[in-house]
TdcF protein (Aliiglaciecola lipolytica E3), 128 residues
Amino acid sequence: MSKSVIHTDRAPQAIGTYSQAVKSGTTVYLSGQIPLVPETMEMVSDDFKAQAIQVFENVTAVCEAAGGNTHDLVKVNIFLTDLSNFATVNEIMSQYFKQPYPARAAIGVKELPKGAQIEIDGIMELPE
């Protein structure tokens, strides 16, 4: 099965040796998104809520570039440097997803690239 690289200017450019997402068949594997503003490649803010919103906007942009949307995500991994922010993540996530929600993991980590407080990756299954 062939694979294709997904790219959009509406999400931050890769800052390493990876693609924003890779599609294989009807499955799309999204790389982790951090709260960089695509136009400036700078962190949106030090405020956690602003960072979380920016990450969901970036994830949405990559999903759309792949031909889907956040409702097509079947698995989401959320990495947080402070798990006490999880209630805020749930509040913001409810604005980007509707039921049935994707499977999800929330993982506390020591640090993330560029000092981000949140990173999200996922797997999307496109309608056939």
Notes: The domain at 3-125 is CATH 3.30.1330.40 (60s Ribosomal Protein L30; Chain: A;). The chain is about 25% helix and 30% strand. The first helix runs from residue 48 to 65.
